[in-house]
């Protein structure tokens, strides 16, 4: 009974994270022509880091032992920060070139990369439903990037999104392997570290003006609280199953793109979305058991 409750709690955490994280692409698309990529990401990760650290300080139950970083965990934490940095760069470059609805839908590849990394690197078994889900998502992506039987130009930029998903897949598994860390504290350190790296890039470029401070608040809601909910969900579901639920972020993001940016809804997109949604639901069926 307790295990079922934990799974339901994990499911709700992951679904909440998916909804909040869906706004990342929307926000980046809305501001990409007004502010540099590095400054935007600096402000958003800063918001995530500061906001979550405040949550950490306001939490009564804080364990210094739980938050103590061991020597064995240092390489993992460095890997997490590097993967987050590379993934965010690749994603925002794709956002510059293609519709946010397409970018959002392609982010479903994160579930594939997480499952494959879990299987090949961390020896986490892939179920039959997960395998079918992977096939459906890949098939949906192929259809999405073809037009009149020919690979469209957007296909090249789509590879940037898929590459970003690879780095997030590695990061998700690394995060799960040290998920006993107090989530607000650990996620705040990660966001702050990535924010610092982007600040260095901003300073090198000499772009010192502080435009659009609202991005700090947006960063807290998406990169901060959204990622925190995901980290919490991994405690109950594990990396692969948490990502299966979190992958609904792609659908949320695509729908938001059509509503906010009035992007054109094509038949190709609809077919691809249906295949990907079926794939997600197939994989999620394992969680409910």
Task: Outline the structure in words.
It is a single chain. The model has no long low-confidence stretch (mean pLDDT 82). This protein is an all-alpha fold and 289 residues long. The protein has one domain. The longest helix has 24 residues, at 74-97. The protein contains 14 helices and two strands, in the order ααααααααββαααααα. The protein is globular. It has helices at 2-21, 23-31, 37-58, 64-67, 74-97, 100-106, 109-120, 128-144, 154-177, 183-205, 214-237, 239-246, 248-261, 267-284, and strands at 146-147, 150-151. Strands 1-2 form a two-stranded antiparallel ribbon.
Question: How is the topology of this model organized?
Answer:
Blueprint: H1 2-21, H2 23-31, H3 37-58, H4 64-67, H5 74-97, H6 100-106, H7 109-120, H8 128-144, E1 146-147, E2 150-151, H9 154-177, H10 183-205, H11 214-237, H12 239-246, H13 248-261, H14 267-284
Antiparallel strand pairs: 1-2
